[in-house]
Amino acid sequence: MTDLVVVADRALIGGGFRPAVLQVTGGRIATVQPPGSPLPDGAAVLRLAEDEVLLPGLVDTHVHVNEPGRTHWEGFATATRAAAAGGVTTILDMPLNAIPPTLDPDALAVKRRAATGEVFTDVGFLGGVVPGDPGRLAALAAAGVYGFKCFLLPSGVPEFPPVGDAGLPAAMTEIARLDSLLMVHAEDADTIAEAPPASGGRYSDYLASRPAEAEAVAVGQVARAAARTGARAHIVHLSSAAGVAVLRAAQRAGVRLTAETCPHYLALDPANIPDGATEFKCCPPIRGGADADALWQALADGVITAVVSDHSPCPPAMKALATGDFAAAWGGVSSIQLGLPVMWTAAQRRGVPLQDVVRWMSAGPADLVRMAGKGRIQAGADADLVVFAPDQRHRVLAGELRQRHYLTPYNGTELTGVVRSVLLAGRPVTDTPAGRLLSREDR
Fold this sequence. Notes:
Oligomer: single chain
Distance between the termini: 23 Å
Low-confidence stretches: none
Largest sheet: 6 strands, parallel
Order of helices and strands: EEEEEEHEHEEHEHEHHHEHEHHEHHHEEE
Helix content: 25-40%
Number of helices: 13
Mean pLDDT: 97
Number of strands: 17
């Protein structure tokens, strides 16, 4: 029995927009048929308006939910409610900044218990890599994590230390044996230590304190370790042209190295960041200009394959708003609800079509973590669908966002594109959490 029929004049299917009739059964897309196909009796029918397009649910593989332990920073209920409001139907939770971090199956079980009955999207989990016995990663992989995350410099929280130069090859050797994925925060601590330290409220001083060279050096380190071990490695939140150049060279040499970037690196201009506006602080920093141009080109070339949020919220007090001191402020941008319109607004200025933006934010992240059934409109896929009005303009009002804390660098920005409704497994997202907790072994 068909549960739902979706009729759209413009549905994103196979890389382009075309009219289609979708039949949904048991939470999955059963068939994709041409317009005018007969509708089954008894099924609910959703007809899109003339100004709406049908998109696959977005997949965000880089979200810091922070629960348990730091639920006052965010939390599963608030993070996933905000994600769903922005058209994101599946997230992967990073192994930090929760307490305990996701370093073993027991910690993963604690996190899953905290999320049970609280999520408005589907949620999967990543494990952490810190100094210590890499053999423990096998137990986390068996427990269903979609991959692993490590830092090459201090993470900002003491319970998740950097893996270190010696630890990276050992971890990659084990991850290669497990046929898993290592996501790496790639900035070189020694290069940053030699840069002028950040202090005060000038964004330009903060930017100088984390130079692009630090990213390039670290990406090279990851590339060499991946080449030696054969592991799949992935650079998170790539921010610079220098980093892109090293990534390109590694890929040309056959290294199994991929990368993501984030909307804030593609859309925001440091020239427009006011002094003391610490809501813009993230690590690595927003660079703009030629660095943003290189990131857009890398996406067009398939060198970067995913755009994700790196949603990393904190209580407003941790952003040092009273002093505007970039050195003291927590580094993280809160924007999971806004990624699609931010990207679409920026893409239009560059002549980039909507289908490319959506691919980078849906199929790209899903393919990265081998998440079958996500990120595409096709028969057999989960019926995670987004009704999007690409021409409608709106102004961001921070108080209307669904995240726990309203602080965002996009407050007051006028954007193009509005998510009007979202289906998760063929059912409208409502005020009742109905998401699933996913495991790598589910499919």
